[in-house]
């Protein structure tokens, strides 16, 4: 008689077993597999499951940081690496600090300083020294996009501009202190950019013009150079390596009668040698400018033979000495160039640029 009620299973009949619970190692294997397959979201979920299953939280944060880097999300990657820095494993903490130093900072700043000294000996002799200092404090809302909101202060005051006894002024440079705020967007490996800024401009010379004016400007800039222009201290590319670079900009400036001024300056040279922290770079330099209003000092072409001494350190410094010949090619009725319009001059340029990124 067969029993219909509960009892032992009949011989040869199998029942399904509950699947084994995944451990942290299983979830890590799953995460790595999904990461290799390009499934970023699935890999992130698997890493979080590994954390819940008991995997080391600090290691999971490091893994998620690299995963976000591969996905191009630098903001989330930085957040994960910052969490990992506070973990107990010193090796993982050091690894995370190293990654954070490479990633862009949300708050950063830079300083630019230059002094150009020139002595013109044709067609008439003249000389001047023009220093310019600029300081900017930057905020980058997203680490994945190089868009910055900034505050700035900038000043220029040359040595030769002065007020004459009759009350008239001899002005050879834009002697103003500027301050205000702006926006900057850089792209194509940070070599191209757009900017816009505005703020008050304070006249530093008693030249009869108003002491306070509004300065609004904006435009496009390009700054690029071949890698050999920046050798290492150990002497990388110490002899004969080609160095090419270009700086160009086109800028609207409200204070200059709503003018638009374009400048391009390519340089070509070689890396002659490296002595200690100093690179020796003989170069050919060409500079050209044009504007909308036709002010002669913004419409010229010149070329020169220069030599650059480049100090290779966290505090970079360039000294560029050369002889330049050029000519003004256009003018308006109010601002007529000297005659002849060609000129020859010796020039010394001292330049430094510091970013807080270099000290992280």
What does it look like?
- By secondary structure, the protein is α+β, with helices and mostly antiparallel strands.
- It contains five helices and 15 strands.
- It has helices at 24-36, 40-52, 57-70, 74-85, 90-102; strands spanning 107-122, 126-139, 147-156, 162-163, 169-170, 176-187, 192-203, 212-225, 241-253, 259-271, 273-275, 278-291, 300-311, 317-328, 342-355.
- The strands form two sheets. A twelve-stranded antiparallel barrel has the order 1-2-3-6-7-8-9-10-12-13-14-15.
- A hairpin with a 2-residue loop joins β11 and β12.
- α1 runs antiparallel to α2, α2 (40-52) runs antiparallel to α3 (57-70) and α3 packs antiparallel against α4 (74-85).
- It is elongated, with a radius of gyration of 31 Å.
- The chain starts with 23 loop residues before the first helix and ends in a 5-residue tail after the last strand.
- Mean pLDDT is 90; it is low at 1-7.
Name the helicity range.
10-25%
Determine the strand fraction and express it as a percent band: over 45%
Structural class: alpha+beta
Number of strands: 15
Shape: elongated
Chain oligomer state: single chain
How far is it from the N-terminal to the C-terminal residue, by CA? 85 Å
Query: Any idea what the radius of gyration is?
Result: 31 Å
What spatial order of strands do you see in the largest sheet? Answer: 1-2-3-6-7-8-9-10-12-13-14-15
Order of helices and strands: HHHHHEEEEEEEEEEEEEEE
> Low-confidence runs (pLDDT<50, min 5 residues)?
1-7
Global mean pLDDT: 90
């Amino acid at each position: 008689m067969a029993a219909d009620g509960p009892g032992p299973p009949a011989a040869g009949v199998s029942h399904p077993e509950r699947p084994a619970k995944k451990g942290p190692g299983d979830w890590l294997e799953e995460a790595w597999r999904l990461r290799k397959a390009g499934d970023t979201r699935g890999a992130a979920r698997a890493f979080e499951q590994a954390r819940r299953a008991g995997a080391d939280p600090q290691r999971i944060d490091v893994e998620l940081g690299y995963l976000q880097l591969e996905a191009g999300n630098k903001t989330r990657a930085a957040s994960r690496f910052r969490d990992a820095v506070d973990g107990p494993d010193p090796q993982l903490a050091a690894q995370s600090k190293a990654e954070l130093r490479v990633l862009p900072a949300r708050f950063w700043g830079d300083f630019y300083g230059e002094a150009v000294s020139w002595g013109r000996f044709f067609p008439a002799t003249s000389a001047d020294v023009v220093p310019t200092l600029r300081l900017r404090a930057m905020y980058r809302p997203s680490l994945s996009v190089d868009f910055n909101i900034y505050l700035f202060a900038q000043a220029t005051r040359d040595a030769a501009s002065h007020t004459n006894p009759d009350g008239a002024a001899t002005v050879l440079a834009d002697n103003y202190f500027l301050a205000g705020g702006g926006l900057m967007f850089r792209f194509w490996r940070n070599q191209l950019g757009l900017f816009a800024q505005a703020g008050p401009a304070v006249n530093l010379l008693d030249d009869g013009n108003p002491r306070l004016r509004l300065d609004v400007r904006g435009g496009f800039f390009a700054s690029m150079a071949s890698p050999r222009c920046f050798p290492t201290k150990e002497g990388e590319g110490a002899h004969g390596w080609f160095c090419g670079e270009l700086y160009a900009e086109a800028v609207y400036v409200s204070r200059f009668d709503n003018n638009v001024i374009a400048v391009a300056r390519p340089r070509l040279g070689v890396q002659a040698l490296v002595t200690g922290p100093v690179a020796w770079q003989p170069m050919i330099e060409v500079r050209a400018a044009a504007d909308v209003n036709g002010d002669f000092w913004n419409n010229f072409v010149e070329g020169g033979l220069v030599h650059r001494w480049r100090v290779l350190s966290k505090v970079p410094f360039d000294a560029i000495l050369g002889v330049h010949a050029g000519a003004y090619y256009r003018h308006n009725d109010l601002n007529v160039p000297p005659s002849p319009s060609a000129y020859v001059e010796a020039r010394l340029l001292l330049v430094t640029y510091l970013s807080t990124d270099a000290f992280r």
